[in-house]
User: What shape does this take?
Amino acid sequence: MKTFGCQMNVYDSERMSEALAAEGYVETSEPAEADLAILNTCHIREKAAEKVYSDLGRLRDIKRERARDGKETLITVAGCVAQAEGDEIVRRAPVVDLVLGPQSYHRLPELLARMRRGETSIVETAFPDEDKFQALPDRRPPRAVSAFLTVQEGCDKFCTFCVVPYTRGMEYSRPVAALVAEARRLVERGVREITLLGQNVNGYHGDGPDGAPTALAGLIRHLAEIEGLSRIRYTTSHPRDMSDDLIQAHRDEEKLMPYLHLPFQAGADRVLAAMNRKHTAGEYLDLIGRIREARPDIALSTDIIVGFPGESDADFEETLKLVEEARFAHAFSFKYSPRPGTPAATMDEQVPEDVKRERLARLQDTIDAGYRRFNGQFVGQTLPVLLEKTGRYEGQLVGRSPYLQLVHADADPARVGEIVEVEIRSAGANSLSGVICGSA
Assistant: This one.
């Protein structure tokens, strides 16, 4: 199994693996050993999609080699590239046996059975009526103390650069009861922190215990009642759905971590309008002001696109200005990549690639400087850190602060899963290092 792209794809890959485990499959990290190879794909940017075809070329050679030894190899392309390109994948890469959209992966065992009966080149990209989550088996024991939980899928915003409404469909929210039950099973198996996932997670509106729609703040309150669950996070949010009750949850709910990923995408109102973002730069700054008023220590991260069609030098300077004003803890920046079928792909005034590269480099320098300032302020302070796994060096563990920073500290591996106080001694480019309070 190879997973591309977002955290939701990571969750989907875990659920596919669970469904396959019930069929007797065991995961391997070696493609040459695999009877079944699955590429769970991302279609957000062109480069991510092209990597899939590169991998399919390598899998084609492995499949031929295994066939000479009398071994069968089934190749599946799943995820958003599968949904977007469908039959084109089979035409371009005939080695593919199954193309499987993200709303149909609960049918994977059934589709594999059809292939074993001799069917070839199956393309399953419909949006089925049944709830795929109800059809999936219970979660397996997790591999870590932190876990993802998909609560919402799809998006109704139709930003002009984005393929999500076409590959994931319209917004769908899972019922509160089902999510609480899944979260309880995860906690019973050792999970201490859960990250709630959705393409537009703060637009969550699942049925509550009383049958009425429940907003994300209400879901968080229900999850916070689970004994043994220490931390809750969520991603990714849209500024238009950052409601007052969710802001208040950041103020009032102790288990909700003071970290928020809130993409603004561009700093110029003209570009935001062309993107169909339905917010202005000023409205975004006002919003994060209200969020910081409710939770002064909150760390904000964001997504930014440079070189959107028609973006001028002056527009780009507005983006740099917003980054400075917003004081982000971190940001993810990307060159605009035209995606087939989206309105922006056919817009006039496509920005030259060299201009996009230069703008991205300048933006990344600004982001990196902000990241260094954010991390540097914690040197000499003490942070509660959830220890998640062993580090690169013997005797070292790695965990996460409330602000999602990686933190390294020496500790016994038996302490994985504990939340410990760490005195921060140094700040690196991408992480913090410290000493567990009370350690010798």
Remarks:
- The mean pLDDT is 92.
- Residues 2-124 form a domain with the Rossmann fold fold (CATH 3.40.50.12160).
- The two ends are 42 Å apart (CA to CA).
